[in-house]
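Purpose: get a first structural picture of the assembly so the mutagenesis plan has something to point at.
Setup: two entries, given in the order below. No constraints added.
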Amino acid sequence: MKRLGLVVFPSVLLLSVASVKTTSRKQDSTPARESPSATSGGLAAWQEIYSVMSYPRCINCHTASDYPQQGDDRHRHLFNVVRGPEGKGVPALQCATCHQSANADSARVPGAPDWHLAPLSIKWQDANDNILPSVAVCKTVSDPKKNGGLDGAALVKHHQTELVKWAWKPGFRSDGTARSVPPINYEQFMAATRTWVQAGMPCPE
Amino acid sequence: MQTFKLIVNGEQREVSADPSTPLLWVLREDLKMTGTKYGCGIASCGACTVHLGGVPTRSCVVPVLLVGSRPIITIEAISNDPVGRVVQDAWVSEDVVQCGYCQSGQIMSAVALLKAMPKPTDKDIEDSMGGNLCRCGTYVRIRQAIKTAARQLG
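Result (structure tokens, whole complex):
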């Protein structure tokens, strides 16, 4: 159902783009002004990016709380795991205590290099655990004051890290079934990221 | 099978194992260091905790392939560590142990906590020790022993 929804969604979005006001961040790595068609393409690309960012397994580490979440139902991480001062847990219960640099398929514990929570400034949910709307996530992701100082080029690089790529190779659940993956594949996600950045990182309003 | 050179408790050890073998089983079966316990095998109980590169780590979910050059410290050598010695003494003085099965993992986690946070609050202890389960329910004594050790390390 999610895949079907995604296929339909871009065409709906494109119909509405003409009437959408946009906010485009002006940064060193992004053009100062884009043509309307580039902006439209950028907005469509953003919605594809948002379909990934709003996916449960991605939000689980972009929480608005002092703890990570788990699973497609985004339940609180077991063992009362907490965020800690740097988003990597606390001294005796760090992310790295269990999450190694690769999935542990024998135990079904997921892993990727530098496993950690995103800073609270890059949260993609509200305090009531609701997923933030597209415009809110877009403004956060495109704002270097909130996104950890990343410009467009750095965002592209961030999306190429093994931790982000893990979303598409998440291994297996404890019951042996495959963990779910985002609604578009990684190549589509990166293509959308590049299109969005080249369009000046426009956000819907 | 593949040969791995591991640094265990300060000594270089060589083992031949399948790369996917969890570190826990390399320690217990190949190196005969049985102080580290098997509890759940899925990083859900903490009984298998060792220090890997200084990080308290569930050895049951670390394939030996991923250990690399990171030094491993197990319960067998923790008394050589100044903090470890004090923690073990506190465990004895507070009579923490009941059945004892989880306690090597508890001590490894407690040492990691006190090394990073010499004066932990109750919440610090609960946050850090939350992944170490004790079916005997010795949690109150564990917390007391950590506080005792903290005072002695003062």
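The beta strands of chain B are 2-8, 11-17, 49-52, 55-58, 72-73.
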